[in-house]
Design brief:
Rossmann fold, alpha/beta, globular, 11 helices, 306 residues, five-stranded parallel sheet, 5 strands
Length: 306
């Protein structure tokens, strides 16, 4: 009978976590409700299963891929789920949550975060947060209101830019060659490889295509990283596209960046979005929604932006 005590303890603990997760979870995806990364997570208020392509990764993601430009030119919908310094364990958590609401046909991983430092404790905490929202929002205890104990969750905040971070500021950089071919490999933490494989395995189980992309960044990218990502992509049968070696983009670092050499601005993102939109449209069966009345909000947003 001794085994009943630990079972009872675990059961009570799980029940408490479930109750507190309901209480501490924001009841809306607004800043006032305390929701994290409101811009990237505004997909929660989009109609379910209406997003065809997901872009996911760190800040290079949200500053490079422009869903409205892609929709304007090719007609398929996309969402930019880029967040600052997004770690691979966060990518997995974000992906799991996104797939509860949407079933994209393709997921585009911006893979610069494979080279960010990996913290096993934070990764464990992130995994707990996937099951119990209390671990993500425990700091809301000071701002809890009556409706947090009684209301159901309803997401209302939308983003016309569909997660893209629009910056038109220009900071001049120097146009110089930075992708020198060699046979060296950049070091990478095994934890990052573990979580990107978890992402890929999840998509394989759901029958969703995926692609690895290194988007344009003179400061961050080099050929050692290119070689490492290419090696990992081959191991897990993923397509790898490195935009840093695509001459057709004609990125001008004097005009196309908001910080000189790391992140692209609006004008650089236009070039990248045109290229990646054409690349995806030519390789995957993606629908054209531009004449579909169900997607009128996309047409309205495009008309306002362009």
């Amino acid at each position: 009978m001794n085994y009943l005590k630990p079972i009872l303890f675990v059961s009570i603990l799980v029940l408490l976590l479930m109750v507190n997760s309901f209480i501490f979870s924001p009841k809306n995806n607004t800043a006032e409700s305390g929701y994290h990364n409101m811009r990237a997570n505004a997909y929660l208020a989009e109609p379910q299963n209406t997003i065809d392509v997901l872009f996911i990764g760190d800040s290079l993601t949200y500053s490079n891929f422009m869903p409205l430009k892609i929709y304007k030119d090719f007609g398929f919908t996309s969402w930019n789920l880029g967040t600052a310094s997004q770690r691979t364990y966060s990518t997995y958590a974000y992906l799991c949550n996104f797939l509860k609401y949407q079933k994209p046909k393709v997921v585009v991983f911006e893979v610069e975060n494979l080279f960010l430092n990996f913290n096993a404790s934070y990764a464990f905490y992130s995994e707990l947060g996937r099951y119990f929202e209390f671990f993500n929002y425990h700091d809301r205890w000071k701002t809890l209101k009556y409706n947090d104990f009684t209301d159901s969750i309803e997401y209302t905040h939308t983003e016309p830019e569909k997660g893209y971070y629009d910056v038109k500021k220009k900071v001049k950089g120097k146009n110089k060659k930075y992708m020198f071919k060699n046979n060296k490999y950049a070091s990478i933490d095994s934890g990052n490889v573990y979580f990107i494989k978890k992402c890929v395995n999840l998509l394989n189980r759901k029958g969703i295509d995926y692609i690895f992309v290194s988007t344009v960044s003179m400061k961050n990218m080099n050929y050692e990283k290119h070689n490492t990502i290419q090696k990992i992509a081959k191991q897990i049968n993923a397509t790898y596209l490195d935009l840093n070696v695509v001459n057709e983009l004609s990125i001008n670092w004097e005009n196309d960046s908001y910080d000189g050499s790391e992140h692209l601005n609006y004008y650089g993102a236009l070039k990248v979005s045109s290229y990646i939109g054409q690349y995806l449209a030519s390789r995957y069966k993606l629908p054209d929604h531009r004449n579909d009345s169900k997607y009128q909000d996309w047409n309205d947003s495009v008309n306002k932006q362009f």
